[in-house]
Amino acid sequence: MGKDLSKRVLTFLILISLLAVAMNLLSTVEAQNKKKPRRDVPLVKGLSWSFYQKACPKVESIIRKELKKVFKRDIGLAAAILRIHFHDCFVQGCEASVLLDGSASGPGEQSSIPNLTLRQAAFVVINNLRALVHKQCGQVVSCSDILALAARDSVVLVTKLSLSLQSNLFSGGPDYAVPLGRRDALAFASPNTTLNNLPPPFANASQLIADFANRNLNITDLVALSGGHTIGIAHCPSFTDRLYPNQDPTMNKSFANNLKRTCPTANSSNTQVNDIRSPDVFDNKYYVDLMNRQGLFTSDQDLFTDKRTRGIVESFAIDQKLFFDHFVVGMIKMGQMSVLTGSQGEIRANCSARNTESFMSVLEEGILEEALSMM
Q1: How many Å apart are CA 6 and CA 276, to the nearest integer?
Q2: Active site annotation includes 134
Q3: Tell me, which fold does domain 40-232+274-373 have in CATH?
Q4: Is 201 helix (H, G, I), strand (E, B) or coil?
Q5: Where is the signal peptide (predicted)?
Q6: Lesser CB count within 10 Å: N end or C end of the chain?
Q7: SS3 call for 312
């Protein structure tokens, strides 16, 4: 009896020790992932690293807590939210115009061909986040800031706990500080303007380099931001021009044959994961795909084919930390494109519709004064 009791006590002590080690490891991981502002990326006037420090100090925790629940139900929404952020910023800037429904003045940006495959459920998630934040803080946080934070959290929360001792404890994207203070647009872009500003999947590296340069994004930003395709899915018509009528010679033959089974016709309604190696993990495997000629879009694979971008692809495929670092820089730079700040635009009460009266509320004036005082 005494020996059995001693064994149980010893087992209990061992379990406590292992738990303590695990908790310490998790604390270390959290400390390493603590979000620090990137001082090497200039901020647009009107944005701040601590914009809601007084007006809504829990805004980030509210959003992340809710998204954990959302992604547990549907992990695919992470990629959908990240994509909406890209599609917003590249058309008129990061001012939430893509969230607006159409009106009597015409169809909204969501009606444009490149946006027809944006998931409607993701728009609902953004509006739900807005409702939660406004319930806690009042109407002081813009939909464009909520979208930027949700996109960041989509990258962070697409993780998988690894059971292999040979790999890292967690796989997933980088956590980073997001400059805040954006305001929401009063109008959406026309479908044609939207179409002309979103880089198409059939664009080659030269077209992409020129397009990104016009937005003050360099070649490294281009390759790093393209890494967002490490998660998510694509619809067959967006890449079957590489399969039919003639197969793209830069595409791996086995990969092409698998795609043809998924997309038996050019206009098939089926979908394909962007990254065949780890479709639900934000990592650098997208670049490994490109090196193996398994990129889905022309805009993906041409980054490895073109000599100007090939070396960057190779460096990111070898060094995930390097990719993460440049992805963060690219996201912060992109997230500041043509933003509205100060008294520009508005803070929407509903992300899908303009406020009924376009004037600054007392709450909006208060948060602006607070933010300016901290700059």
Answers
A1: 51
A2: no
A3: Peroxidase; domain 1 (1.10.520)
A4: coil
A5: 1-31
A6: N
A7: helix
**Would you give the distance in Å from CA 301 to the centre of its chain?**
20
Total-model pTM: 0.85
- What is the C-alpha to C-alpha distance for residues 324 and 171, in angstroms, rounded to an integer? 12
Set 87, 134, 229, 326: catalytic member: 87
Tokens of 71: 């992604």
Exposed, middle or buried: residue 328 (CB in 10 Å: 0-12, 13-18, 19+)?
buried
Report the C-alpha gap between 172 and 155 in whole angstroms: 7
**Mean per-residue pLDDT pooled into runs of 10, the chain (375 residues):** 52 46 40 70 96 97 96 95 98 98 87 96 98 97 98 88 39 90 97 96 98 98 98 97 97 98 97 95 97 98 98 98 98 98 97 77 48 49
- Identify the H or E element spanning 79: helix 76-89
Residue type, 332: I
Domain boundaries, the chain: 40-232+274-373
- Return the structure tokens found at 34: 């603590």
